[in-house]
Amino acid sequence: MFFIIEINDSSSYSVDTVEVSDYTAVHYTTTSGSEWNSSVTEYFFITTDQYIYTLTANYFTDATEGFGARFRGMMDTFIIQ
User: Fold this and answer.
1) Which CA distances in Å does 45 have to 9, 54, 69, 80, 81?
2) pLDDT per residue over 5-42, tens digit each?
3) Which end of the chain is more exposed for a tag (fewer CB within 10 A), N or C?
4) Residues 26 and 3: beta-carbon distance below 8 Å
5) Residue 44 CB: number of other CB atoms within 10 A?
């Protein structure tokens, strides 16, 4: 399975591995600029034997400390049953 994430010339991005609840996720972050209203998109890919789960967050740079922190708190409750 392949994922295509479009990154514009004006975007910056980072890739790392993070822990989400009890799972390891590949984490991609794209940012469209440095202004307060620049778009930030985070993708978290969790792979199991049968499925790939995608958690996605979209917010403005100004909301990183608030919404970004809340979204990570919500992700810590993610359970695969």
Assistant:
1) 24, 5, 18, 13, 17
2) 666 666 788 899 999 989 999 999 989 888 999 999 99
3) C
4) no
5) 21
**Are 45 and 23 a contacting pair, CB within 8 Å?**
no
Supply the CATH classification number for the domain 12-67. 2.20.130
User: Dihedral sign, CA of 67, 68, 69, 72?
Assistant: positive
With tokens 């794209």, the residue in question is 30
Is the CB of residue 8 less than 8 Å from the CB of residue 32?
yes
Q: What is the mean pLDDT of the chain?
A: 86
